[in-house]
Write a structure and sequence with these properties.
By secondary structure, the protein is α/β, with parallel strands linked by helices. The protein folds into 2 domains: 9-20 and 90-215, HAD superfamily/HAD-like (Rossmann fold), CATH 3.40.50; 21-88, Orthogonal Bundle (DNA polymerase, domain 1). The protein has helices at residues 21-34, 42-48, 53-64, 70-88, 95-105, 117-126, 150-159, 173-181, 212-215, and strands spanning 9-12, 109-112, 135-137, 166-170, 185-188, 204-205. The relative contact order is 0.20.
Length: 221
């Protein structure tokens, strides 16, 4: 593991990292493609994780071989997803404990997500977590999506601290690449739909958000 500078700020990805949305998305996309005689494979899912909606729609169309427009396919997945998101999605293991630890450490926090702002607010407010974060950066705030470093470079500027002192928590290869390119210290947290081998570019890979290896980097005040 690369030894980081003292951590001065922490940025969280949203989907798959803070909330177990990837399982619901996989089910919604599988049902959409199944209704059209196609299969949603782990390879398609891996290609989509961490990407913005426009890229997800393109990948759905090209990798499944369907003739419908990207917008039509994505709208169907969104409908199925949104029907259940308020009840089927939960905080990931260790999230609340980590947020409490970071509060005790006095570290400012942010969210940097490839999803849209209304959706991000829906999740954070629905789980009473919005007030934990100094700011939220969403798809509307950047011109280039992950793996481009724009969103994390923007977060670093908002914090006003050296990039190397900012810890980024990510669950996708695209997100890890974006955070590394922005010069931050990157922690990868794998899950069923984003295995650890895809996150090897991270400075540290841990099993979950309350892993002692991660907590050991945080100094409480």
């Amino acid at each position: 593991m690369t030894e980081p500078e003292p951590i001065q700020a922490v940025v969280f990805d949203l989907d798959g990292l803070m909330f177990d949305t990837e399982a619901l998305f996989f089910r919604a996309a599988s049902e959409m493609l199944s209704s059209r005689g196609k299969s949603f494979t782990p390879e398609i899912m891996t290609a989509m994780i961490g990407r913005r909606s426009a890229e997800v729609g393109h990948l759905l169309k090209t990798m499944s071989g369907l003739e419908e427009s990207e917008d039509e396919l994505l709208a169907d997945v969104r409908r199925r997803f949104n029907d259940e998101v308020d009840t089927a999605v939960h905080p990931t293991p260790g999230l609340i404990a980590l947020l409490d630890r970071l509060r005790r450490a006095g570290l400012p926090l942010a969210v940097a997500t490839s999803s849209g702002r209304p959706y991000a607010n829906r999740l954070l407010e629905g789980h009473h977590l919005a007030d934990r974060f100094r700011f939220i950066l969403a798809a509307e705030d950047v011109t280039q999506g992950k793996p481009d470093p724009e969103i994390y470079a923007k977060a670093v500027r908002r914090f006003g601290v050296p990039a190397a002192s900012v810890m980024v928590l990510e669950d996708s290869p695209a997100g890890v690449a974006a955070a590394r390119a922005a010069g931050t210290f990157v922690v990868g947290i794998p899950h069923e739909h984003s295995p650890a081998e895809g996150l090897i570019a991270a400075d540290l890979v841990v099993r979950r958000l309350d892993d002692p290896a991660l907590w050991g980097l945080l100094r409480e005040t």
